[in-house]
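Technical appendix A lists one of the benchmark inputs used to test multi-chain prediction within the project. The record comprises two sequence entries:
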Amino acid sequence: MKISKLVEKIKPSGIREFFDLVIGMKDVISLGVGEPDFVTPWNICESAIFSLEKGYTSYTSNKGLYELRLAISRYLNNKFSLSYSPDRNILVTTGVSEAVDLALRAILNRGDKILVSDPSYVSYDPVSELAGGKVILVKTNESDNFKLTPELIKRHISKGVKAIVLNYPANPTGVSYSRKELLALSKIFIDNDLIVISDEIYDELTYDFPHTPLATLPGMKQRTIYLNGFSKAFAMTGWRVGYACGPEEIISAMTKIHQYTMLCSPIMGQLGAIEALRGSAKSVLEMKREYKRRREFIVSKLNEIGLCCAMPEGTFYVFPSIKKTGMNSADFAKKLLYKEKVAVVPGTAFGSQGEGHIRIAYASSMDNLKEATQRIEHFLKNNA
Amino acid sequence: MKEILEILEKDARTTPEEIAKMLKKNVSVIKKAIKKYEKEGVIVKYKTVLNTDILKDNVQKVKALIEVRVAPQRGHGFDHIAERIYRFPEVISCYLLSGSYDLLLVVEGRDIQEVSSFVSERLATIDNVNSTVTHFILKRYKADGDILKRIERNNRIAISF
């Protein structure tokens, strides 16, 4: 059977094999997981159980439960003075993953160019291609901590560049942008009339300065599709609830696609999300404090044992360099797995610029982090 | 520095070196702070949380909550009478409460008889103890913030983006 040319063109993830290897192995300490190690706070679980008992098992409106959209609207307003109307500017999606897809499909015409950072989260590039766009990779540098800079973006602007995907705090590098850095970037976005898909799913996990949503900067709200969700901050990955906020015409375009492809986000997840916004601030803060302690621990430990590692501003990832071992990312990850049973993700999974790096997720217990760093130290001593 | 306490309360085995890394502080600063907390009695001691219910061949001890009504004493309030009571090694916790009785004790013994005789012979006979009500504990589900049952955790897939 012939599959579509568009799909055929998408490169299969080069590390599928490695993933299968990890999943097939026993007693591995995995620092390769892209989700919180906490269980969803009990008040959220409990409210979802109650809603099931009450028989809330139906579809919701395509845009999502009004109560949830209202809660999101209030949350953003209270937190960032960012005002979006629950009727016109907010769409509840099945995780941010769906929102990324919808946003790209809503704005891209065949052949439109879109800037995507390299390295970056794995879906932006293939999903842009599926939407008919032409991806222009912006190769970020280790010397800039893999941040996008105005100069770097300027260099990649050409005729037909319509949009850019921004993700901060970023998976896999953990870096984020201060308000000042964002202001400098926003000037380029405005000057070149770019639409920005801003994936801010890790916003609550920003440790060194307050997170600034791109849409709060002057001139940016009308060109930003703001994406966020419940997976990371509230430890709700499996619930699949995210949301997109933006100009009315974009949100209604996204809703058009969403109503035919997804219909709505699962109602149990949406009800859980309402409770998350209503009564989980304390749990979120506790998790964040714990992540922050782990971040300090892992960065200092990695540097101590000889893996050069910058201090990222957010997420639960660090992206240390393994260049001095002489191995490439894939070999390093594979050998570390075989010899020490520690799983990490090779940096190349996130783009060619990730070569020479590995992604370590510290969303794992302190005990695991201690044991894993000891094993890595042992590995380095024997494979230097 | 209070964060040290938060870390130790979660896991008393965390070393000063590890705490220093987590809080981005000097090890000597952490050690000094811990010493200070120990000296002041903020850190009372380091213990292990046990669930002996699942030990095989374990001779189960019996625990009871005991409500005690006492008459407070002039000049001492409840403190004096409370001390008379909590000094008994059988008493493992002692609280002064508002409401319909005054002291709440947790008492531990080898068996029901031992706890009963402690109550009837030692406790109830103390001057100023007016009455007692004993509730034997049938099962402990959660103690001091720790759920005692081993929770089967759904494992995350070992690797993901």
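Chain B has a mean pLDDT of 92. The interface with chain A takes residues 3, 6-7, 11, 14, 18, 21-24, 153, 156-161 of chain B (CB under 8 Å). Comparable benchmark entries are summarised in Table A2.
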